[in-house]
Amino acid sequence: MAEPVSVLFVCLGNICRSPMAEGVFRNLTNFGTSSQHPLIARIDSCGTGAYHAGDSPDPRTLSVLAANGLKDYRHKARKVRVPEDFAEFDYVIGMDADNVADLKSLGRRSKKVDADGWESKVRLFGEFGGKGTREEVDDPYYGGRDGFEIAYEQVKRCGEGLLKEIEERANAAK
Ligand code: 4NP
Questions:
Q1: Most buried one in 7, 52, 161, 165, CB count within 10 A?
Q2: Order of strands across the sheet with 40-47?
Q3: pLDDT digits (tens, 9 = 90+) for 126-170
Q4: Distance in angstroms (rounded) separating the CA atoms of residues 17 and 78
């Protein structure tokens, strides 16, 4: 049996996109239930910025999750921890290209991040979306609810793709 992996979803504020991704991925993997996916050890989310540290997800994120049957997701925003998050998580997944660039720059600037391996953990979520492009989950914060609905469709599709990759890697390692 392959070792279970840890997944960290990252956006800017950790109140809109990454908590939505976390809530959807928790649901997809039955996380915290008796039928939890055997290849998943830990799921969390954070932001590259600390503007909303300690805040609950944006009400529009919670509303779109609830509209899709996910009513009990709770989270408090936090900023990414360097180097700890790069050491503790196997996947550090940015929602857009800025998130990925910011994560890489934080890692490179930290003398404490282990030189080997961490950079390949930093991935763009859209890589798993099946569209064959560097799809980004755009920041919906300044727009209307429709932006959150678009983000939901993306994080669900990309989360399914990510889980498929995790399962395929585990099968290949058998
Ligand atoms: P998120 O959206 O990165 O998807 O959580 C944002 C939320 C708040 C801000 C920016 C993006 N802000 O600047 O306050």
A1: 7
A2: 40-47, 5-11, 91-94, 122-124
A3: 999 999 899 999 999 999 999 999 999 999 999 999 999 999 999
A4: 13
Token pair listed for 168:
């395929």
Give the separation between CA 111 and CA 101, rounded to whole angstroms.
Answer: 17
Q: What is the pLDDT of residue 115?
A: 60
- Residue 95 CA to its chain's centroid (Å): 7
From ligand 1's centre to the CA of 56, what distance in Å? 12
What 3-state class would DSSP assign to 40? Answer: strand
Say if residue 116's pLDDT is above 80: no
Q: Which residue, by CA, sits nearest to atom 9 of ligand 1?
A: 13
Query: Which tokens sit at 74?
Result: 């709770």
Grouping H, G, I as helix, E, B as strand and the rest as coil, residue 133 is: coil
The span from the CA of 10 to the CA of 20, in Å, is 11
Identify which of 9, 10, 16, 103 to mutate to test ligand 1's pocket (most ligand atoms within 8 A of the CB): 16
